[in-house]
Specification:
single chain, alpha/beta, 434 Repressor (Amino-terminal Domain), Rossmann fold, 12 strands, 45% helix, elongated
């Protein structure tokens, strides 16, 4: 069985540097860390995790709380978390909370029982009192809120600018000539929904188009939610639908086709996220591309900073999005 000394010899660095690269990678230069990780793979080194955890009084595990792991968006974010966690020697415990507060509480108990060191929360439901109780002796609770973010005074956030993204997609549809733009939004309880709607309305106002509440429907970010909302909105005669997730856009396309409408000749359809299915849909979806894996990677990097003693407070890191134009949008009556 290989030892840490074998890794040291292969990488050409000291044993102390190997140990630091595996336990506190943020303190090691990137090229050195890469050499150590390559050496770990080359000599097939397996660290004694139980001994390491006992010495450090850390679990070297973190919990990711996802509201719906069946959603391809969250699966990609978790992949990004795992990439950084694995390099840092942390295991990832995935909690599929299904938007259930009781299930969230069960996963948070892993921190209280020292089976995990920190939490990445991918939904907006954060109970400050409960979290303060978990980290009552810590100046900086080891939690990062990513994707769907809330404003609380002690938790760093990693997100995109949903207002700007909602505005960008609506501006694209307006530029094509659409004036009756329907919206298939998520639940109003979601910060994503409120921000994307705000951006949508800003773009309409700037173009001199009056917002019509009858052209807004609500789903749950799922294909079924998009299907049902599009069925209801079709009665109001939109020439375009802006769906707040690609999965809802795929459901909306299905509903429109069953009603005899062609996409995009009769109704343009746009999504949000740029999941893998977006480019393979028929027609391929125009969408807002989110940096899903980067969201996960950045959230884990921030959590590692907290675990190493840094106190980021309520700082927010905003990652860029981009408009991806494909065949599902076209001028009205094209």
């Amino acid at each position: 069985m290989s030892s840490i000394r074998d890794v040291s010899r292969y990488a050409g660095v000291s044993v102390a540097t190997v140990s630091r690269a595996l336990s506190a990678p943020e303190k090691v230069a990137e090229d050195t860390r890469a050499r150590v990780l390559e050496a770990v793979r080359a000599v097939d080194y397996r660290p004694n995790m139980m001994a390491r955890n006992f010495r450090s009084r850390q679990a070297f595990a973190i919990v990711v709380l996802a509201p719906n792991i069946a959603n391809p968006f969250f699966a990609r974010v978790v992949r990004g978390v795992e990439q950084v966690a694995q390099e840092a020697g942390y295991a990832v415990l995935l909690g599929d909370t299904r938007d259930d507060p009781e299930r969230e509480a069960e996963y948070l108990n892993l921190v209280q029982s020292r089976q995990a060191d920190g939490v990445i929360q991918l939904s907006p439901r954060i109970d400050p009192v409960a979290l303060r109780r978990l980290w009552k002796d810590e100046a900086a609770p080891a939690i990062v809120n990513a994707c769907e973010c809330v404003d609380i005074d002690f938790c760093p956030r990693v997100r995109i600018d949903n207002v700007a993204a909602g505005r960008a997609m609506t501006e694209h549809l307006l530029m094509l000539g659409h004036r009756r733009i329907g919206v298939v939004a998520g639940p109003l309880t979601s910060p994503l929904t409120r921000d994307r709607l705000a951006g949508h309305r800003q773009a309409l106002q700037a173009a001199g188009v009056t917002y019509d509440a009858k052209l807004t429907g609500f789903g749950d970010f799922s294909p079924r939610g998009g299907f049902e909302a599009a069925q209801a909105l079709a009665k109001s005669g939109p020439t375009a639908l802006f769906c707040f997730s690609d999965e809802m856009a795929i459901g909306a396309v299905r509903a429109l086709r069953l009603a005899g409408a062609r996409v995009p000749q009769d109704v343009s359809v746009a999504g949000f996220d740029d999941i893998d299915l977006a480019r393979f849909a028929e027609p391929p979806l125009t969408t807002i591309a989110q940096p899903m894996e980067d969201l996960g990677r950045t959230a884990m990097a921030v959590l590692l900073e907290i675990l190493s003693g840094r106190q980021p407070g309520a700082e927010t890191r905003v990652l860029p999005t981009s408009l991806v134009v494909r065949a599902s949008t076209a001028p009205p009556g094209a």
